């Protein structure tokens, strides 16, 4: 009897796995269609100077509205695209679209996320070079965001690729800093121009002394190594003041604006005074 139960359980488990797999396969097919029919969109989140009032750049963030499931987070569909190989096509589209949109904002840096699989392809730097040439986008205004997982077990090819990108005049940012291995070796060896402090540290600044200490340490580390430091996920006036006092160069977060359609970015550039935050009062912390 016990044996039978065991077999039944195994059977249910298998069915659940099958269901999960076929759900994923379905979604993957939908993503393929969405890419083919141009149903993905790119939104742009402002990156501002430490006052919060001057937009320095934007980060391109991909959006997918599924015909029946509604909005699907990139945290879900980017890994799906990576596992199915669709990331190659998706990533090429994002790069091109961001550059084309960015042509309209000559004063801004345009940051584009590059997934590990995309970055690891031997022809990635060629793709960037070709897309820059085809769009006429200024390489100095392009910033590629990669995460540490790109570097793991892959030092030599990552370095070659990064040096080629640097030679094109493109800037490189280390995204989500503090969440991976955060080896200091990476910072010495690889030519990053910028560190982006992960949102999880910013979130705890007011509540946890350790998060605040980490933010201070990352800022001085970045500065000491000649890199710019950006804080992600800034939501409150208190976080803003803390980070400004800590010496970050730039900030990004809901306090300064969510990801928005390209025409909204243009509107902000035209009427910057309408988006000032520096007059807002903090609730407690004074820088
Ligand atoms: P990321 O590159 O670290 O992007 C920042 C994420 O934090 C975005 O989420 C953004 O909307 C969110 N965020 C910004 N400010 C705040 C804030 O103040 N509070 C909160 N709660 N969240 C904030 P999103 O757009 O959902 O993207 C999630 C991740 O998906 C990105 O993290 C990036 O890793 C990936 N991703 C998005 N678009 C692309 C893309 O075009 N290509 C690739 N390869 N990855 C992408
Ligand atoms: Mg990013
Ligand atoms: Mg990030
Ligand atoms: Mg992140």
UniProtKB/TrEMBL annotation:
Domain EAL, first and last residues per copy: 24-273
Coiled coil: none
Protein name: EAL domain-containing protein
Organism (species): Undibacter mobilis
